[in-house]
Amino acid sequence: MMRVINFFFLIFCIILCLIIIKFTSSLKYCNNSKWILVWNDEFEEDQIDIDKWKIEDSYINKNNEKQYYSSDEVYVNNGNLVIRSQKRNKGEKEFTSGLVSTNGKYAQMYGRFEIRAKLPEGKGIWPAHWLLNILGKWPPEIDICETYGQNKVYMTNHYESLNKAHSEGIGCEVLNLSSDFHTFALEWEPEEMRWYIDGIKKFTTNKHIPDIPFYLILNTAVGGDWPGNPDSSTKFPQYHRIDYVRIYRKDIEGTKLLIKTSKNGQIICNPNDSRFQTNTLVELTAIPEIGYKFKSWKGIDSGKNENPIKIIMDTHKIIEAIYIEDSGNKKNE
Fold this sequence. Notes:
Elements: H1 2-26, E1 35-41, E2 54-55, E3 67-69, E4 74-77, E5 80-90, E6 93-97, E7 99-101, E8 111-118, E9 125-133, E10 141-146, E11 152-161, E12 164-173, E13 182-189, E14 192-197, E15 200-205, E16 214-222, E17 238-250, E18 255-262, E19 265-270, E20 275-277, E21 280-288, E22 292-298, E23 309-313, E24 317-325
Parallel strand pairs: 3-6, 18-24
Antiparallel strand pairs: 1-17, 2-7, 4-5, 5-6, 5-17, 7-16, 8-13, 8-17, 9-10, 9-16, 10-11, 11-12, 13-14, 14-15, 18-20, 19-21, 21-23, 22-24
C-alpha cells in the first residue's frame, strides 16, 4: 500500500513540476531573477514594430541642435534597430538623423530599463537613451546613457527643486563605444535609482526619485549646445545600432503581474492595474480596432472565447487578445 501511495505521490509531483516549468518558461527574468520582463523588442523582424514605436519626422527645436529627425533614418537591419545620421539638407537643416520613442505606446513607473547598443562617434554626435514623463513637463528626465561622440558616457537624473532645474549623475570612461556593443541599464525603485554599464554598477542615488510613469526615447542628435557642432573631423554617415530593448518590473512577494499584449485592438482591465495582490479577481475586456473582431485569448486555460472574461491572479500571467479581420466591418479605404 505504501508503495502505491509513493507512486501516486511521485506522479503528482512530476505533473506539478511540469505545470510550473510550462509557466515559468513563458516568463523571462533578468539574470538575477529579481526582475520580470514585461516589454521588449529584439528587432528580429524586417521592419520597425509601429505598435511599439513612434517614429519622429520633424524638427524639434531645442538645444540649438542641427538635425531634422527624418523617418527614413530609422530602420531595422541584421537584427538591429539602426539610427543613421547624415549630412543632408531637409526642413532647412543641414543634417538628418533619427528618433524613436514609446510615447503613446508604452510607459512605466519603476523597473529595470536595459538597452544593448553600439554608439556613433565624432565631434558633434550626440546619441542618447533617455526617459521623459507622460505629463509632458520638464524636469524630470532620466538619462540612461548619453555621450557626445567620445568614449565617455553620462548617466543623469534631472529634477526640480525650489522651482529650479537641477541634475545629479556621473560621467565615466568606456572603451570602444563605437566598435563594440555595450549594455546600458537603469534600475528605478521608489527609494533608489542605479545605473549600470555591462552589468557593473556606476552610479546610485536615493534623492529626488520621480514617481510618475515615463516613456523611452532613443535618438542621435547632431550639434547643439552640449556637444558642439560637427567639424571637418566628423565622418558621415554615422550609425547608432541597438541590439535590443528590454523593460522589466520587479518580482514582489505577495503580488502577481499581469502582462497584456495585443495587436489590432486593446485590452481593458478592471481593476485598471498591472500588479495585483495574489488571488485578486480581475475582469478583462478585449476591444478590437475598426476592421477587426475578437477571436480568442492566449494564456488563459479555460473560457478562451469569452469576452469579457474574469481571471484569478494566482500566478504571474501573460495574456494576449487575438483579433482577426472582420470582413463585414472594414476600415474605409
